Amino acid sequence: MLRLLNLELQKLLLNRTSKILIFVSFVLPFTVLILSSIKINFFGFFTLELGELGIFNFPIIWHITTFFASQFKFFFAIVVVSMIGNEYSNKTLKQNLIDGLSKKEFILSKFYTIVFFSLVATLLIAVASFFIGLYYSSYTEASIIIRETDFLVAYFVKLVGFFSLCLFFGMLVKRSAFALAFLFILYILEWIAFGIISWQANMDVAEKIQNFFPLKSMYKLIDQPFQRVMMTKFPDKADLMYDYAVHWHEIAIVLCWTALFIFLSYRLLKKRDL
Amino acid sequence: MEPILSINNLTKKFGYLTAVKDLSFTINKGNVYGILGPNGSGKSTTLGIVLNVVNKTTGDFKWFNGTVSTHNALKKVGAIIERPNFYPYMTAAQNLKLVCKIKGVNYSKIDEKLEIVNLLDRKDHKFSTYSLGMKQRLAIASALLNDPEILILDEPTNGLDPQGIHQIRQIIKDIAGEGTTILLASHLLDEVEKVCSHVVVLRKGEKLYSGRVDEMISSHGFFELKCENQEQLLTYLESNPDFGTVKVENQIITAFLNEPMDAVTFNKLMFEKGIVLSHLVKRKESLEEQFLQLTDKL
Questions:
Q1: What is the distance, to the nearest Å, from the Cα of residue B138 to the centroid of all Cα atoms in its chain?
Q2: Domain B3-214 coded CATH 3.40.50.10330
Q3: Residues on chain B touching A92 (C-beta within 8 angstroms)
Q4: Which residues numbered 121-150 in B keep a CB inside 8 Å of some CB on A?
Q5: β-pair partners for B6
Q6: Which residue from B71, B75, B87 is facing A90, i.e. has the nearest CB?
Q7: A236: which DSSP letter?
Q8: What is the pLDDT of residues A24-76, one digit of tens each?
Q9: Residues forming a β-bridge with B281
Q10: What CATH class is the domain B222-296?
Q11: Is B48 close to A7, i.e. CB distance below 8 A?
Q12: How far is residue A89's CA from residue A85's CA, in Å, rounded to a whole number?
């Protein structure tokens, strides 16, 4: 396993473009997070301090940071599709197989890399959130800090799932740009399917089915936190109530998709003449 | 003899096209094999199948008597197919390091093999800055990294300039001289003739011949003759049952043998008949002539 990871890391880290993209995908969410956590003084007119809003309180901070950090997953998604696209365009995939890598090992080396980067991203967010939380939060008891750390699990699963989808699209179309276009097409298709179902049946059924779609199920893992922030400001407004928690069945759906995408990528490679 | 690769009734279909048809042959240790065939005869497809990049339709193949899985067997094989494929953004040494990681070879081999192909001074230059000849030599270094039991080369001199071709051939000869088994696919016959001891001839995916180069067609060779009294010589040759076809071209008489006969015997015979030769050469058909005879038969 380490051998396969090591192999892929060499391919990625010696490539300047992917090195920059990986760097950006880690550094950008951080910069945003840290910038938002400091007090910004707008030339003496007014000061903006997001911490005052209570969004950096435990346990809600886990929800906020993972939600915003996951918006930056697109940068690493480009790395994932290009690491497949490059293997095809340089014909190095063929050479790797001839040199004695099995098709299974090839897919696994990509998958391990995805898991590795998702893990690193999750750990970094966890550490950063923890310290910002300690600084701003009104409550710092261990039991409150620990609460809702399942958002970190959801964040990890979300990244792995999303990158596995990118891996599959990369294997399917062999070209990085087309693979990214496919992601966009899938996004539109999911909404069209949602539209058709809600027109044929009703909104409720459509929403339930939509939660099983690949992109939507990944999104559902970490619901938007805005409504929740509003709820803390206006606790008496009952119509703002919604279910924002991470559920095990949501994780299970995404894990199923992940397994399916990896399996399909393998099948695709196995059947293909290179 | 110890078989390295045996192929049994291998068939590959691309849709309606049959690229390889019921092919069987065995590669034994220590020999240098050539796979001959015109373009599109299924050479590269056959190599692709045994190298795990093309899926077979039916039939099977076994590496090292089938004792190891294909991808593990390939770690003991060195192969170059068509064009050198490396990561353009890595240097030569980094590319070879990656191959070492795949094959499970010690990094110390990198410099040793780069030395063999004369690329040691360029080892820290990016692959994308290499000329085609250098890329091809790097591919050979990469294929040699694991000290392979068999070296597979598919058109290794394609697209190279004369110097490049000469360098590659010299490297192949050196490697063959060390006793490494080599499988060389090419449509350049003189190339195969210069290095190979055995050949497999393919045409439209079918095997026409496999065996030693010099036994490819049952021929005893021919004499090229010249003498003052051409008429007398021709009459004699036509009356002698040991000779088959006799051709005259540019004053040179070419007489094909039906029975084995060496030049000394023939010269003595001529002298006894009172025919004095001014030119006598005994030759065998070149591989090119043999190949054309074989492929034209069908």
A1: 21
A2: no
A3: 85-87
A4: 142
A5: B26, B62
A6: B87
A7: T
A8: 888 888 887 777 777 666 666 666 666 667 777 888 888 888 888 888 888 89
A9: B224
A10: alpha beta
A11: no
A12: 6
